[in-house]
Amino acid sequence: xxxxxxxxxxxxxxxxxxxxxxxxxxxxxxxxxxxxxxxxxxxxxxxxxxxxxxxxxxxxxxxxxxxxxxxxxxxxxxxxxxxxxxxxxxxxxxxxxxxxxxxxxxxxxxxxxxxxxxxxxxxxxxxxxxxxxxxxxxxxxxxxxxxxxxxxxxxxxxxxxxxxxxxxxxxxxxxxxxxxxxxxxxxxxxxxxxxxxxxxxxxxxxxxxxxxxxxxxxxxxxxxxxxxxxxxxxxxxxxxxxxxxxxxxxxxxxxxxxxxxxxxxxxxxxxxxxxxxxxxxxxxxxxxxxxxxxxxxxxxxxxxxxxxxxxxxxxxxxxxxxxxxxxxxxxxxxxxxxxxxxxxxxxxxxxxxxxxxxxxxxxxxxxxxxxxxxxxxxxxxxxxxxxxxxxxxxxxxxxxxxxxxxxxxxxxxxxxxxxxxxxxxxxxxxxxxxxxxxxxxxxxxxxxxxxxxxxxxxxxxxxxxxxxxxxxxxxxxxxxxxxxxxxxxxxxxxxxxxxxxxxxxxxxxxxxxxxxxxxxxxxxxxxxxxxxxxxxxxxxxxxxxxxxxxxxxxxxxxxxxxxxxxxxxxxxxxxxxxxxxxxxxxxxxxxxxxxxxxxxxxxxxxxxxxxxxxxxxxxxxxxxxxxxxxxxxxxxxxxxxxxxxxxxxxxxxxxxxxxxxxxxxxxxxxxxxxxxxxxxxxxxxxxxxxxxxxxxxxxxxxxxxxxxxxxxxxxxxxxxxxxxxxxxxxxxxxxxxxxxxxxxxxxxxxxxxxxxxxxxxxxxxxxxxxxxxxxxxxxxxxxxxxxxxxxxxxxxxxxxxxxxxxxxxxxxxxxxxxxxxxxxxxxxxxxxxxxxxxxxxxxxxxxxxxxxxxxxxxxxxxxxxxxxxxxxxxxxxxxxxxxxxxxxxxxxxxxxxxxxxxxxxxxxxxxxxxxxxxxxxxxxxxxxxxxxxxxxxxxxxxxxxxxxxxxxxxxxxxxxxxxxxxxxxxxxxxxxxxxxxxxxxxxxxxxxxxxxxxxxxxxxxxxxxxxxxxxxxxxxxxxxxxxxxxxxxxxxxxxxxxxxxxxxxxxxxxxxxxxxxxxxxxxxxxxxxxxxxxxxxxxxxxxxxxxxxxxxxxxxxxxxxxxxxxxxxxxxxxxxxxxxxxxxxxxxxxxxxxxxxxxxxxxxxxxxxxxxxxxxxxxxxxxxxxxxxxxxxxxxxxxxxxxxxxxxxxxxxxxxxxxxxxxxxxxxxxxxxxxxxxxxxxxxxxxxxxxxxxxxxxxxxxxxxxxxxxxxxxxxxxxxxxxxxxxxxxxxxxxxxxxxxxxxxxxxxxxxxxxxxxxxxxxxxxxxxxxxxxxxxxxxxxxxxxxxxxxxxxxxxxxxxxxxxxxxxxxxxxxxxxxxxxxxxxxxxxxxxxxxxxxxxxxxxxxxxxxxxxxxxxxxxxxxxxxxxx
Length: 1414
Fold this sequence. Notes:
Blueprint: E1 7-13, E2 17-23, E3 29-36, H1 41-56, E4 60-66, H2 70-77, H3 84-95, E5 101-105, E6 110-116, E7 119-124, H4 133-142, H5 147-154, H6 168-180, H7 185-204, E8 214-217, H8 219-223, H9 225-235, E9 242-243, H10 251-258, E10 266-267, H11 268-276, H12 295-306, E11 320-328, E12 332-338, E13 344-351, H13 356-370, E14 375-384, H14 387-394, E15 398-399, H15 402-413, E16 419-423, E17 428-434, E18 437-443, H16 452-461, H17 466-473, H18 487-499, H19 504-523, E19 536-539, H20 546-556, H21 569-581, H22 593-597, E20 601-607, E21 616-622, E22 627-630, H23 650-659, E23 673-676, H24 682-695, E24 699-702, H25 708-713, H26 725-740, E25 744-746, E26 749-750, H27 767-779, H28 781-784, E27 790-791, E28 794-795, H29 800-810, H30 816-851, E29 855-859, H31 867-870, H32 873-878, E30 883-886, H33 887-890, H34 907-919, E31 925-932, H35 938-950, E32 957-961, H36 968-987, H37 1005-1010, E33 1012-1015, H38 1020-1031, E34 1037-1039, H39 1045-1054, H40 1061-1075, E35 1084-1089, H41 1100-1110, E36 1118-1121, H42 1136-1159, H43 1168-1184, H44 1191-1206, ...
Parallel strand pairs: 1-4, 5-8, 8-9, 11-14, 14-15, 16-19, 23-24, 23-25, 25-27, 26-28, 29-30, 29-31, 31-32, 33-34, 33-35, 35-36, 37-38, 37-39, 39-40
Antiparallel strand pairs: 1-2, 2-3, 4-10, 5-6, 6-7, 11-12, 12-13, 16-17, 17-18, 20-21, 21-22
Helix pairs in contact: 1-11, 3-10, 4-6, 4-7, 5-7, 6-7, 7-9, 15-21, 17-19, 19-20, 23-30, 24-30, 26-27, 29-30, 34-35, 38-42, 38-43, 39-40, 40-41, 42-43, 42-44, 42-48, 43-44, 44-48, 47-48, 49-50
């Protein structure tokens, strides 16, 4: 080296910016810069390097690259790459060593890094990208400014609004109404920053408190002072604990420079030259076919669509009556004026620019300026988001819900229309029309909007106008496939494609495809686009984009009608409604133009003090003393009584009936105070617990009604960001009770609820309801430190006897006699409260009959009574004069015909089905289902309830609710339902009531001879042997080889989109195979296992049947393999022969898995391990298909296999061991976990995967616990014991061989695994992988594998508790444990998964070095 000085160069390539830093030996920064790359990474980097070249001359430096976008580039430049977190922590240790926690926000990622005595732990945003830099940019563009502008506004805020930062898309839906109602930009800006803070703390910290010295890093925090102030305010930090650093936005770059390697160096000129070569990257992101293959095709398309025109007439020559329609949308305002004949005289379409009222006033002034003498506006109507505001401001004559207005407009173009697809600025609607009325409305729930405004934001971020961006798409050569998940993930997919050199045109075309895929598959949930309808009208501003329209026609395979006024259809429809409502001599109430010109309005905010909802009211005052208030959920905010028409509201009644008990006074409570959280199943069983403890002389302290403040009390201890809101609330209630200083908190885990419907197949509680108290135990610090006592026994409410036994065990310190008496009284009180609710239901039904009122059964779970969870929807419904009933007030009257297509095993759901079955018999009732966002089980129930209702000609409505309280969508749904009911009444149609039973195809003895049985792939190592074992017993089983991406796409088409990832993969493989044309559909069957446990897996058989029915293949029998006695088939029997062969195959598979994964990373000769494996597979297949496979031979073979593998020559290098645990399918199936084992091996680690047989042991072991604690039969427990003994004996030879071997560990006994899990989670956690998952993690740690990847499907219910929920406790008990939880689902970005796995590996490497040095 010529230069004696040692310079280092750090390059940090982020998702939106490129940062570089050049340091000298003393680590002073000689040059640094930060620049947005608008996806042109190479050019941007090259510019930055040229700048530094002109400053510093041609020096020689040691480069190092880091950042989410740096990996591919590093490989091409031949520059080493370092993991981002490592570089950030290096920089912190150098520049701010006292840091305890670093919060780093980037363009698309948010990270929190904890430094605890040498252990670095990082949390990064998983599948949701709310609250990051690009989120702030998106919000800023809503307020028509940029991030710096937001910062300026935020300095002068007066009050904060609650805004959901959970998802950029939700936040939009919160901010939009505030803008529309006139909130100030100052307040909004500060609230946006506050939302980012809440998102970062609740979404990332996931239960880990942020304490000590906090450093703030990354662009947004560096440039936005107010954002940092919001963090400091929320975390209550003082000066001393806030670490101020210069260059906080360059930390990753500085850190990577500090990590530079001695042996790699280039001159600056060489670096610049390397970049100028234009690097060709290979495609990782899938590509799709072009939208138009030729200009001719495009011309034909244009000509066809230009023909759908509305008749227009010129306004200046018009004389006669005109009708005005105003559509105040979420982002734009549209106005239309039509004449007597429906001709369009005037149209107006403009952005709201933050004030819809001003925009509308301008439009009306414009109309009057052009209105000739002989024309006058005689009737007016408003619709859309701001319908009520417009109506109040201008005193319009009519207001109509937007769905009906859209239908009127579409019918004007095509009277036969049966489907209207509307994609607007941020809402998507699909309106299905049946017999001339709106039959069903699907809106995008809070998630997945990203419609028009998403394309717009995207175009902006790439410096394009929307029009040019859309044009670019038309002839793109390789549109990128962006999938159908959250729009912010699309950002990361797009980023990845850009890194691979995709052009803007490819991106634009890809977006056009994905918007449509989102609309069809995610929002409207059609499996096949042809289900939409025959005559489709598309509308909404987004369809002006030819690329979007074309991709819709391509994907849906249809020719749609796009009116030339697609963007103002709502206003046009409203004007037509005004025309239809007009009768001669009617006097309009609308303000005159003189009044409108002088209309002054001011907007102020107030908080309603009526109840705990504390609605934020927006008060618009108009000149002349009129005012319009919005933001209220009931009438009280308007100064009126709450329920003016006094229709019955059973939600209100049931809440009072459950919780208005008076606790004992302190002097009478001899035994002290017990705290009970008002959450989840307490909404069902509180009368029991209140009576039980009061009888035992305890004072019962019940936590108060939920509010957002209570939610915030517990935000720090929530371990999983994707669980449902009712579960998250539990943390707050428990924290409140701890603050009250009660003697102990009692929160039992109820495995079985009462058996209310004996003909259902079981009566479980949902996995979250059952075991959520475990999450409280493992994540609330006060309980962990012993400052508060939590008692959470696992028990069953199957009957009073079983419950009493469990209580005697739990309260062994009290006299058994007293407990029995108290329990009996509690049971009686619970029964009484149940009877009262049934009686009340019958009263309301007779009230409906007497008064001719309509009623709505608002069906959900018991805890949907909580006003903080249902957001006042019951009051919303009563405000329209409808009675509200709960599902359990009528469920005793309904009897669905069984068997249902779903596995009906949850007690709350059996109630739903019964309520739906009753509603279908009455014309004065309709059902609306409440569904919590993130509720996995509702993937099962919503389809079933829909079947029961629509099968009998009723309309099904489902409302998704979560912490966001924007009732806009609920209002539209409820009003559309009302208008449909009215239309149905007018027509007086007859309904026929259909049976709900499933006609199951039985697999017969006959079929056994010549049917092929298809089996989905789960674990390739095991299944090739199991396939042979089954075929030896006279079946034709075929394990499907198509476990790939294509199968997942097929799965998305055929399964409810809220279903979990494994179900998509299983159903996808099966449907993909059946659709491939390889099989004779009349000679094929499908096999699937069923455990009968309380998780969704038991419902896969139902999912498969529903998919077959959708594809018109009902004749294919589905065989359930289960030991729980769920369904049986005469042609498929599990006899001893088949079971024995299956166990043989499983043991062989487990041996292979242990041996191959242990030896392959170290083999001296590449391929020697796999060769040994293939050699033995053939021998094992021969063995399991032999006529009489004997034990003796089997034991010998096990021993020989182990010895053979043990002898393979391997190197003596040390690699970190990484355990893989998690949900069974994702753990074993390479297709589901993105080939995790191969990834780990290529990254220089050794994978350790526990045995498949262990899962069978776990199923047996559960029976023992249930018989002892949950009152199930002793006989099945005895059989299970035999099963365990038998399997242990079969595995014994392998276990002995492993113990003797040099390189292997023997598998652990199931009783040991249980004893490892028990201190952390109860053995009562038996849904999904349950306690077994936790036990496996501890077993791995104890046997020297401290690094673990916990794989789980996104939103897997049991894993919230036994996977993510225990990581904190594991760390406490085993400080060396290094566990990373990875969510897998079809939309998850692999880059993100990779980054998290790499971080875990880098910690693993560090720990390994420490051990070797020690």
